[in-house]
Design the sequence.
C-alpha cells in the first residue's frame, strides 16, 4: 500500500479561523480523501503555530498566560474537523513537548553543519507577518500586508541561519524538479527571488524582550524565531528526530500553503532541510487569497468570513463545494453571499441533487426499485475520469468539480431529451436508459466523495453502494452497479431555499 503525506501550514493562533484557512484545509482534505480512494495509506497533518511576538503581545494585553491564550484558539481550529468534515490524522501544536524537543534537535543539526552564527544587527520587523522587512518591501514606510501596524525596530544580538549557503542548491533543485512548486508561475516567482540572492536571517530573539518561544539549545538568553520553530512541525509530527516509524515511511510529503507563505515554505524551509541533511519536501501547492465581496478581509472592515457561520447557514457539504468548485485553485478568489446562494441553487439543489432525485425516482417507478440489466456507456465516462484525474494531478480542484458539473448537466439534458415517462406510456422499454443514468449517478457520486463526502455517500447508499468500499481507479470503470440491487428514492440532498 503506497504511503501519502499531506500537510497544511499551521495557522497562527491570534484570531478566529477564517475562510482563507478553511480553503487550504479543505483542499488538503480533498487530496487526503482522494488518495485513500486510490488505496493509499494517508497521514494528514495540520495544527496551530503558537509562539512569537504577536502571541506574546496579545496575551499580555488580555492579562493572560500565553499558553492559556493559545489553548482557546487551538480548540477553535481543531473544531473545524467536525464543522468541515475533515479527516486529518495529526493535529500538532508548536507548544507540544515533542515538537519543542524536535525543534531543538533540528537547531543542533543546523549548528553542526556550521550554518548558525551570532551577530548584532538592526532590522525593521512586522509583528503582523512575524517577518523582517527590507526598505524595498515597504510602501510609504509601512508593511503592505499590515499597513495599520507600526514596524518594530529591533537592534540586538541574535543567532543567524546561513541561508546564503543554499542559493545554488535550491536553484538546482527547482531546475531538477519543475513541478516542485505548483502552479508554474509560483515556481517562477520563487526562482526569481532566490536568483536575486539570499540573505542570512535571524533565527532567535532575546528572551528578556520576548520569552514566548522555544529555548535555544545551550543558550537560555535566546528563544527561537517563530518561523524556525514552526516549520519543523512538518517532520516533528511524524516523530522526527526518530528516523524510522512514520518519518521513515511518509517523509517527504506534499505541502499546501497560501501565496503569502511562498518564500517561507519553498525556500526558507527547504534551505533549513538542506542544512539538517533531511530530504526536501516532495511538492508544494500554493493557493491564492480569498477576498470578501471584492474587498480584502479585515476585522476593521467587518467583512471577515467565519467558516463556522457558512456551515451554520448552508451546511458543511455546500461550504466545501463552494471552496473547491467556485474559488479558483491557482488565483485569488472572492467570497460573495450572492454567488454562494446562486451556486447552492444551480449546482446543488437544481444540479446534482435534482439529478440524483430524478434518477432514483424513475428507477423506483419504472424498474420496480431495482437496478436493471447493464447497458452501454452513453456518456463517455472514460473521458470524464481522465479529465477528473488530470485536474487533481495539477491541483485544479475547480476543474475537477467542473467536470462533475458537466457530466451531471449531460445526464439532466439526456433525461429531458429522452423523456422516459412518455416512452413508458408508449410501451417502450426504458430500462437500458435508466441503467445508463443510474451508473452515471454512481460515477458522479464516487467523484464527489472528496468534495462533498456526506452527500456523495448518501447518493451511493441509495444505489446500494457502500461508500467505505469504493476505490479508484477500478471503480471508475463502467458497469459496476449490480443488476437487481435495490434503489431507494432518497430525500432531497439540498432543499431549495426561499
Sequence:
Amino acid at each position: 500500500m503506497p504511503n501519502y503525506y499531506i500537510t497544511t501550514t499551521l495557522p497562527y493562533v491570534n484570531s478566529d479561523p477564517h475562510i482563507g484557512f478553511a480553503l487550504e484545509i479543505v483542499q488538503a482534505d480533498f487530496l487526503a480523501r482522494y488518495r485513500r480512494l486510490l488505496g493509499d495509506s494517508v497521514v494528514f497533518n495540520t495544527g496551530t503555530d503558537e509562539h512569537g511576538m504577536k502571541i506574546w503581545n496579545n496575551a499580555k494585553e488580555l492579562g493572560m498566560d500565553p499558553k492559556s491564550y493559545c489553548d482557546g484558539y487551538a480548540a477553535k481550529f481543531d473544531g473545524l474537523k467536525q464543522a468541515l468534515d475533515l479527516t486529518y490524522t495529526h493535529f500538532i501544536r508548536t507548544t507540544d513537548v515533542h515538537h519543542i524537543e524536535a525543534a531543538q534537535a533540528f537547531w543542533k543539526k543546523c549548528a553542526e553543519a556550521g550554518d548558525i552564527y551570532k551577530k548584532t544587527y538592526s532590522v525593521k520587523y512586522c509583528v503582523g507577518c512575524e517577518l523582517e522587512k527590507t526598505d524595498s518591501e515597504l510602501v510609504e514606510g509601512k508593511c503592505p500586508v499590515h499597513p495599520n501596524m507600526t514596524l518594530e525596530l529591533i537592534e540586538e544580538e541574535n543567532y543567524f541561519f546561513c541561508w546564503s549557503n543554499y542559493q545554488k542548491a535550491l536553484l538546482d533543485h527547482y531546475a531538477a524538479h519543475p513541478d516542485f512548486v505548483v502552479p508554474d508561475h509560483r515556481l517562477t516567482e520563487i526562482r526569481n527571488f532566490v536568483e536575486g540572492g539570499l540573505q542570512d536571517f535571524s533565527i532567535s530573539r532575546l528572551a528578556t524582550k520576548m520569552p514566548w518561544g522555544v529555548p535555544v539549545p545551550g543558550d537560555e538568553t535566546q528563544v527561537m524565531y517563530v518561523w524556525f520553530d514552526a516549520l519543523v512541525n512538518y517532520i516533528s509530527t511524524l516523530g522526527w528526530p526518530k528516523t524510522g516509524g512514520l518519518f521513515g515511511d511518509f517523509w517527504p510529503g506534499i505541502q499546501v500553503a497560501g501565496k503569502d507563505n511562498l518564500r517561507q515554505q519553498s525556500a526558507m524551509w527547504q534551505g533549513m532541510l538542506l542544512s539538517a541533511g533531511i530530504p526536501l519536501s516532495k511538492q508544494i501547492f500554493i493557493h491564492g487569497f480569498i477576498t470578501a465581496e471584492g474587498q480584502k478581509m479585515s476585522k476593521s472592515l467587518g467583512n471577515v468570513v467565519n467558516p463556522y457561520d457558512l456551515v451554520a447557514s448552508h451546511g458543511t457539504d455546500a461550504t466545501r463545494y463552494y471552496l473547491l468548485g467556485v474559488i479558483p485553485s491557482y488565483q485569488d478568489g472572492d467570497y460573495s453571499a450572492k454567488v454562494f446562494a446562486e451556486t447552492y441553487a444551480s449546482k446543488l439543489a437544481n444540479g446534482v441533487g435534482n439529478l440524483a432525485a430524478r434518477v432514483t425516482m424513475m428507477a423506483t417507478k419504472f424498474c420496480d426499485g431495482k437496478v436493471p440489466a447493464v447497458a452501454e456507456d452513453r456518456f463517455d465516462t472514460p473521458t470524464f475520469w481522465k479529465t477528473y484525474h488530470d485536474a487533481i494531478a495539477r491541483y485544479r480542484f475547480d476543474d475537477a468539480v467542473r467536470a462533475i458539473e458537466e457530466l451531471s448537466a449531460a445526464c439532466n439534458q439526456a433525461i429531458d431529451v429522452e423523456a422516459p415517462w412518455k416512452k413508458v406510456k408508449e410501451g417502450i422499454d426504458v430500462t437500458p436508459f435508466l441503467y445508463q443514468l443510474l451508473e452515471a449517478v454512481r460515477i458522479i457520486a464516487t467523484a464527489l466523495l472528496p468534495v462533498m463526502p456526506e452527500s456523495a455517500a448518501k447518493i451511493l447508499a441509495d444505489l446500494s453502494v457502500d461508500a467505505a468500499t469504493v476505490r479508484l481507479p477500478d471503480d471508475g470503470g463502467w458497469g459496476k452497479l449490480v443488476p437487481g440491487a435495490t434503489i431507494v428514492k432518497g430525500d432531497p440532498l439540498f432543499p431549495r431555499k426561499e
